[in-house]
Each structure stands twice: as structure tokens, then as C-alpha cells.
Amino acid sequence: MAPTLDLDFVRAQFPAFAVERLGGQGFFDNAGGSYMCGPVMERLDRFFRERKVQPYGPYEASRLGGEEMDEARQRLAAMMGVDTDELSFGPSTTQNTYVLSQAFRQWMSPGDAIIVTNQDHEANSGPWRRLADEGFEVREWQIDPQTGHLDPAKLDTLLDDKVRLVCFPHCSNVVGEINDVAAVVSRIHDAGALACVDGVSYAPHGLPDVGALGADIYLFSAYKTYGPHQGVMVIRRALAEQLPNQAHFFNGDVLYKKFTPAGPDHAQVAACAGMADYIDLLHARHFGTETDPRIRATRVHDLMRAQEIALLQPLLDYLKSKNSVRLLGPTRAEGRAPTVALTANRPGAELAEALAPHEINAGGGDFYAVRPLKALGVGEEGVLRLSFVHYTSKGDIDRLIRALDHVL
């Protein structure tokens, strides 16, 4: 029988919950950035105190700093089922995607095509769409205007021998539906194209097994995954070796450096090992010992998702009962992330402001998801977005529902 998440243990790993004012709030703005876990903070503090020198030198502080940076890459890559040098860090997912788009611009030939969706937020859409200015064809895989669903059958009508790359999200930051990445990637590969998956809105809900998903590129943000402000990027070897170098010429033969034009943020890269520490802490608490990091990460992923699903369904049921509310995306918790966007009787930002006195921290607006919201018929009023993760409690959900009763 699968264990139940020990929420007291989980919340004890996040210093924010020990802060009097924060601990009493219901935090429902996680899709904009999660709380940072203690192991990440500890590593960041130690690096700034003891390792804040140029890394990879012969003296102790430098050597230890470099080792911690390497540790972050090694451990996270192992948990995601990819090789260490297939994972790299950059300042943000948006910038990582832009750098990749420039590599594809140089690599592709006239007449080649790229497919994007209107379900993505702009980070995994805008940089690729700009390639139309360079003479490449950009095709759009469109969502259902009522449900926001991406129908794989519609992708099939767009795929042909001109398509080099298909870019799509693991899940949308406003629709919330979890796309079947492995199945979609298989369709893409069968058509002879490559797959770029934006995991920014999925990875906070459990570190993905990128090796099992089969994506050629997988991107997500560490600051939404309990870590520091870094973009994490997996580019599988077969593709990375073909794409032209985007970094200093002397780094072109190092996979984890060739798509990072600027030097890494040493402290934040090193601190990302704290994300792996946190996953291992949860595994040890709930499952005991296990030598394979990929298995540990998968078990913790499933543990997080089970907690989220149990809390999400009552919220979805409540919102479905409100005639004045339009809930975007699926109404069953099993098929979506706990990122819940809705429209109601006033603009999303006003709704978020009205919730604040009830100690509910949420956001309103478009969340860089202008294209999907427009496709769904949502105007400038935007949406109220209520997003949570595994450290959210049932009490938080109950408080949220009571607050919504006052403002809707």
C-alpha cells in the first residue's frame, strides 16, 4: 500500500511556514514560484559563506564549489533518467528557449517548419514563432476553444516531412490539463520530427522522468520547483551534438556548456543540489532506502501527485457548483495539475485582491498565457489563478473555499 504524505514533515522542510505571517496564510500562487525548501537555502548560504570564489580551481574553496555545481547536475540528471552532460542550467526557461531557437535557426534549412501550440505560455511559444521572421514556416497546433484540450489527432494533420520540431507543454499554466507527453512524442518521432516539451507548469508536481517521456528537449524552472531562480534544460545527446554551439567557441564540445552563452550563476547552480536533497529526504521518510535515484524520484513524484489529487477534487467540485464561474480545463483532478484558472463576476486581479484580506494569496491576470486565454475567449479581464502544490494542507483548501464564498 502506498504511503500517505507526512504533511507535518513536508512543511517542516520549508522555512516559510515557520514565519508567523506566512505560516498563517493560504499560499495559492505557487505557479508563479514555489516556496524554497530548506536544503536549497542551506546550500545557497554555505556557498556564499564558504565557496564564493571562482570554481574548479586547485584550492579548497574553489574545488568544493565546483564539486557542488557538478553534484547538482549529476543528481538531478540521474533522477530524470538522462546523462549528466545532457542537463544544463541557465538564467531562466525563457532565455534557455530563446538560445535554443537561435541554435535551430542556424541548423534548419529554408522551407523547414516548426509546430507550436496556443496552449503554451509565451516562454515556449514566442521564441519559436519569431523564426517566421527568418523565413521558416511556423504552424499552430490549436486548442479546443471550449475546453482548452490539445487533440493529438489535430497534430497529425500538421505533421509532414517539412516539420523539424514540435514544441508543446507538459501542461498549461492556465488550462492545467496534463498532456500525454510520451504518446505525443511518439507521434512526433514517427513523423521524423523532434519534440521540445515545456515542463515549467508540471515539474513542481513531481520531477519528470524525461528518459521515459522520450522528449528531445525538456525545460523547467527551478524556482517553481522549490529551488533557486534558474532554468533547467535537458537536451538529449543525439540532438545536442547536431545543434551549433551558442557559447564561447572553446566550450562547443561540452554539451552542458554549449547552450549557455553566459557563464553560470555558480551559487544558484550549486544550490540546485538541494532540490535533490529534498526529494531524497521525502523518500527516506516515506519509503526508506533505495539506491537508484530514478526510482526515488518516481516514488516521490507519485507521492506528491496523490496528495495534490486528493486536495484538488473538492476545489474543482466547489467551483463546478457555481453558475457564475467558468472553470478552465478538466473537472477531474486525476487529469490535471492543481493550477486552477477561472473567470467570474469581475477581473481576475480584482478577485485576487478581494481574497487577500481573507489570508488567501493568489494572483490574477494573464500570466504570460495571452494566447491560450484569447483562444478560450477570455479578454483583458484575465483570470483568477489558484495554484498549489504538495505542501498545501486540507485546511488551506477549506479556507480558500470559505473565502471564495465571500468574493464570488
Automatic annotation (TrEMBL):
Q: Which UniProt keywords apply?
A: Aminotransferase, Pyridoxal phosphate, Transferase
Segments forming domain Aminotransferase class V: 27-400
Taxonomic lineage per UniProt? Bacteria, Pseudomonadati, Pseudomonadota, Alphaproteobacteria, Rhodobacterales
For whether the record's keyword set contains Transcription, the answer is no
Which domain of life does this protein belong to? Bacteria
Instruction: Please identify the protein, giving its name as recorded.
Output: Aminotransferase class V-fold PLP-dependent enzyme
Could you state a single Gene Ontology molecular function term? transaminase activity
Q: SUPFAM superfamilies, per this entry?
A: PLP-dependent transferases (SSF53383)
Which InterPro entries does the record match to this protein? Aminotrans_V_dom, PyrdxlP-dep_Trfase, PyrdxlP-dep_Trfase_major, PyrdxlP-dep_Trfase_small
A Pfam family the protein falls into: Aminotran_5
Supply the source organism for this entry: Psychromarinibacter halotolerans
Q: Does the keyword Transferase apply?
A: yes
